[in-house]
Structure formats: structure tokens, C-alpha cells
Design a protein that fits this description.
By secondary structure, this protein is of the alpha/beta class. The chain has helices at 20-23, 28-36, 71-83, 93-97, 99-103, 118-126, 176-181, 190-200, 216-226, 245-253, 268-273, 282-294, 312-324, 342-349, 378-392, 395-409, 412-432, and strands spanning 2-7, 42-47, 61-65, 87-91, 108-111, 133-135, 159-163, 165-167, 185-187, 204-208, 232-237, 256-264, 298-305, 329-334. α6 (118-126) links the parallel β5 (108-111) and β6 (133-135). It is globular. The relative contact order is 0.11.
Length: 446
């Protein structure tokens, strides 16, 4: 038996093969599936983001991991294999939240995480008895470590990906993680994380965890365990971490360079609407931000625009706040009603959506707004977000923030990462906009 794993692209433009910062991260799901697959089963992997898929290469089963932005492309790829009589399975957050939709395009859909059911799926595939759906367990399987040999000679970033936790305890209405894990957080055994880091052979990591400080006692124990490894890492957390001095101390000692924090909005009414009522006062938000920076930890700040109380002043306040704190990186994003979330359901009830399955709409492009925001048109909202990005990532801003980054981190290596990634983000602002969703390298004009 031979399995072909595929990571689909979001889309392509004629003038650019793929967005650099989107393609450098190693596909952790693929290497985990490889590790779970018995050695007597032949495997192959196509990364649709950086190479053409050879549909004529013989295979018995195709497995595709799917996100909302890659769903349309994934469905097209699945169709080409099914036309050849090959069975195709999908998994990922999008099929987990939209299993019936995915079932229209795939022979089988995996809901949730696959570790505990992968052997059963492979047995059913070999016996030609694939079920329409498989329900996985959200927890971790002990002793399971990614097999990165599946990447072959594909040149991914030096940044390794290691999973530390799944889910999140918060209830933000726009979040697919909240919807997928029902506000629960699943901890991975610390011993497995340490061993995963050791086996990777890398020194720089992004910890895959939507809120690595969700369980503060666990987080401190984890940071203590990885401190002797001498690694550098980045991850995602919440601003409340700054209230725990011991947590910050161990984050820094263990090698934390940058932490992504969703500030989301400068408007309290927006925070209430999205069910994210922490750090309501500006004074507390400023103080907690400065506390994290005082430990030499950089912040990747994210903001979302498109909620009902976004006045023009909110956009300017967000930019001013980002410049004031000299953030390592910033993302100014427009709100998206991801299918399966409470936000999407609310927009349907309020008749705000242009089309319910907007992510499958012909001609839909990255940056398009599929709903009617309050106080402005969809085009105006998209343009405002793009303008903020341009203003934050000017060369002058990058140079000024580089001096602050060096002062905070006192590391030429960190400064090099800061400069290279900020310049990448500056260059890619316009490359990302209007990227056709679902269009692959093989569909581009010659």
C-alpha cells in the first residue's frame, strides 16, 4: 500500500510563486502522520505551496490536511484523484467544523485529532471499507514524535515546530480553536515535549499551542524542563501572563524570544462583543505590555477590525499603540466569520454575509470582506487594514524598532531575525492581498 500526503496551497498569483512567510514553516501534521504510519506502508508527500503535484504517480490512498483558506484548493485536488479512482481522505480544523461540506468532496472525513484512530483508518483503507467519517480524540498520544524524513529535500525554515498543547479556555466568538475544542485545553506530557525537541535536532522553535500559558502551573513546569536544552522559542499566549512574575521569569530563562498576543481591539465594546473581556482599561493594557517587554520578551501583537464599534478613531488608536510599544511584529487583520464559529452563526442570523459558503465562491481573493461591516463598505475595511500595515512596516519604523529590539534582547541573532522578518512582512503586504483562493501552480497562465 502507498499513501500520498498533500498540503494544499491557499492560492497563487502569476507574479509570485508563494508568500515566503507562509511556506517556510514545516508542515507538522504531515510529519506526525508519517510517524503514525507503519514502516511497511510506502509514503510520499507533495507540498502544493512550493511544487507541482504529480497526479499520475501511482498511489493507493491520498490524505489531505485542510484549513478554511485551503478548502477550495483541497476540494479541487481531491476531485482530480477521485477521477482516477483513488480514495481520498481529509482532516484538519475545517473538516472538523464542517464535516458534511467536506464529505461532498472526499471519500472519508476525519473529525478531530487522528492519533488514536489512524491505525483503524489504514486498516479500513486496505480492506476497502473506509467509513464516511471518523471521530478522533483531542488529547495527545504518548511517545508520538514527528518523522521529519517525509520532508525530503524541501527547504523549510530552521524554525522547528513542536506541539505543546491543544485548545484554549477562552470563548472568543470568532475563534475556530474555541469551536473545535469546546473551550477545553489539552496538555501534552512534558517528557514528550522535551524528547520531541531533542529528536528534532533544531535549536529554534515555534511552540504550536494557541495559548501556551493557559495553565500557568503547567507552563512553568514546562519552561523549567526545557531550560537546560538551551533553545530559543516563540509561541502564543494571552496578556494576562504579565500578572505572573514567576511565569515571565521562567519564560525568559527557557529561551522565549517572542510571544504572540491577540490584543484584538482598543474598544471595550468590541472586546465585550467578541467575548474577550480581559484587560479592559488602557492603563492596565499598557502596564502589562511593558511588564512583558521588561523581561526582554518581544511581542507579536495582533488586532482585528470589523466589529460593530470600530470608529475611525479605533484604527488610529491601534496604530499609535503599536508604535508606542515598538512591537516586534504586528498584524492588522480584518474580521472573518470562519464557518463553524459563533461569529459565523451570528452573521447568518443577522443576514450580514454576502454568501454563506463564501470561502468556496469563485473569484474570492485573500483580503476580500464577505460581509457588510458597520460604518463602512467591505472595500473600505480591507483598505484601512492594508493602510495600517503599510504605516507600521515603513523602513523608518523598522529601523527605529530595531534599536529598541536590540536594547531589549541584547542579541545580534535576535536582531537579525527581527530585521529579516520585518522586511519580509513589509514586502508581502501587497503580495497577500487579492491572492486568488484555490488557484494552484498548475492553474496559473504559462
Amino acid at each position: 500500500m502507498k499513501i500520498t500526503f498533500i498540503l494544499p496551497a491557499i492560492g497563487k498569483k502569476t507574479e509570485t510563486k508563494y508568500i515566503k512567510t507562509w511556506r517556510l514553516m514545516e508542515p507538522l501534521t504531515i510529519s506526525t502522520l508519517k510517524a503514525l504510519t507503519p514502516k511497511n506502508i510506502e509514503t510520499n508527500f507533495f507540498d502544493d505551496r512550493i511544487e507541482l503535484i504529480d497526479y499520475d504517480e501511482p498511489t493507493d490512498l491520498v490524505v489531505i490536511t485542510v484549513e478554511m483558506y485551503t478548502a477550495k484548493r483541497a476540494y479541487l485536488i481531491a476531485g482530480k484523484y477521485r477521477e482516477r479512482g483513488v480514495k481520498v481522505i481529509c482532516g484538519g480544523y475545517h473538516p472538523t467544523l464542517m464535516p458534511d461540506e467536506a464529505g461532498r468532496f472526499f471519500d472519508s472525513v476525519i473529525i478531530g485529532n487522528v492519533e488514536d484512530i489512524w491505525e483503524n483508518i489504514l486498516r479500513d483503507a486496505q480492506e476497502d471499507k473506509l467509513q464516511k467519517q471518523y471521530l478522533g480524540n483531542n488529547g495527545f498520544r504518548r511517545g508520538c514524535y514527528p518523522d521529519r524524513s517525509i520532508y525530503g529535500d524541501k527547504k523549510y525554515s530552521i524554525l522547528g515546530l513542536v506541539e505543546t498543547g491543544r485548545g484554549c479556555v477562552y470563548n472568543c466568538e470568532f475563534c475556530t480553536i474555541t469551536a473545535s475544542y469546546q473551550r477545553k485545553y489539552y496538555r501534552r506530557e512534558i517528557e514528550d515535549i522535551v524528547e520531541d525537541i531533542k529528536q528534532s535536532g533544531k535549536k529554534y522553535f515555534f511552540f504550536v499551542d494557541d495559548n501556551i500559558v493557559a495553565d500557568e502551573d503547567y507552563a512553568i513546569a514546562l519552561f523549567k524542563a526545557i531550560t537546560p536544552l538551551g533553545i530559543k522559542w516563540s509561541g502564543q499566549g494571552s496578556l494576562n501572563m504579565a500578572k505572573n512574575e514567576k511565569l515571565l521569569q521562567w519564560m525568559k530563562r527557557s529561551g522565549c524570544m517572542v510571544i504572540l498576543i491577540g490584543y484584538e481591539s482598543m474598544n471595550v465594546k468590541n472586546l465585550k462583543q467578541m467575548n474577550k473581556q480581559w484587560t479592559m482599561s488602557m492603563g492596565e493594557r499598557d502596564a502589562l505590555t511593558e511588564k512583558i517587554h521588561s523581561y526582554g520578551i518581544g511581542i507579536y501583537a495582533t488586532f482585528i477590525f470589523g466589529f460593530d464599534y470600530d470608529t475611525d478613531a479605533v484604527f488610529e488608536e491601534s496604530l499609535a499603540f503599536a508604535k508606542k510599544h515598538h512591537f516586534f511584529f504586528v498584524a492588522f487583520n480584518h474580521l472573518l466569520p470562519f464557518p463553524g464559529t459563533k461569529l459565523h452563526d451570528r452573521f447568518v442570523e443577522e443576514n450580514k454575509l454576502h454568501q454563506e459558503e463564501w470561502w468556496l465562491k469563485d473569484g474570492y481573493k485573500y483580503g476580500d470582506i464577505p460581509y457588510e461591516p458597520v460604518g463602512r463598505t467591505p472595500i473600505e475595511l480591507s483598505d484601512k487594514c492594508a493602510r495600517l500595515r503599510h504605516q507600521f512596516f515603513t523602513l523608518t519604523s523598522i529601523v527605529r524598532r530595531s534599536f529598541v529590539a536590540l536594547k531589549r534582547h541584547k542579541s545580534l541573532m535576535t536582531l537579525g531575525i527581527f530585521l529579516s522578518q520585518n522586511l519580509n512582512l513589509k514586502r508581502e503586504i501587497d503580495e497577500k492581498l487579492k491572492l486568488p483562493i484555490g488557484v494552484g501552480l498548475d492553474e496559473l497562465p504559462k
